[in-house]
Amino acid sequence: MDLGKGIRTLRLKKKMTLKEIAEKTGLTISSLSQIERNILTPSLNSLIKISEALKVPVMWLFLEKPVPSNPVIKKNQRKKIMLPNSHGVFELISPPHGVMEVLLIRIEPRQGDKDELVTHEGEECVYVIQGKLEIRLGEKTYFVEEGDSIYFQSNIPHRFSNPIDSSLVVIVAASPPSF
Questions:
Q1: Residue 117 to residue 123: CA distance in whole angstroms
Q2: pLDDT single digits (tens) 37-73
Q3: Quick one: which of 69, 98, 101, 168 has the most CB atoms within 10 Å?
C-alpha cells in the first residue's frame, strides 16, 4: 500500500493543486508534498482533513485498485489498514462507495489511541463483539462491554482504546463514510 501515491492520484484526478488542498486542510504545502512522497506520515486528523478536502472517505486514500462490483466481501479480500500512530487494525467490511461504512476494528490488550482525539462529519454506532472498549467522547469517558453499543455524533472529539488484558473487537457503522 502506498498512501502518499493514493493521495496524489486522487488529488490529480480531481484536478486539485497542493495549494488548494493546503487551504482546505490547514496543512502546509510542504507537509502535503512530503505526505505524497511518503516522507512524512500523517496523523489520523490530517488524513481526515485531506479526505474531506478531496471529498472522499479516508479509506479511499488506501485503495490500490477499484472495488469489485460483487456485493459479497470475502474475509480474505477485505481491505486491512493500520493507521500511523494507531494500535488498531481496521478492516472495511462494507463497500467503500456507499452512504455508510462498516468497519471491524481489533485493538490489542492495553493499547489504543491514547492521545489524539478525532472529529469528522456524521454519526457512529459502535458494537463491542469482544472485550471492553474505553471511548473518550469530549470530556467524558465511557466503558462499553461485550454485547453493548454506543451511538454518538462524530463531530464530538473522540478516541478508542482497550483498557484490559485481552483483545478488543468492535464493529463500527458510520454515516457518511469518513474512514
A1: 15
A2: 999 989 888 988 999 999 887 877 776 555 455 678 8
A3: 168
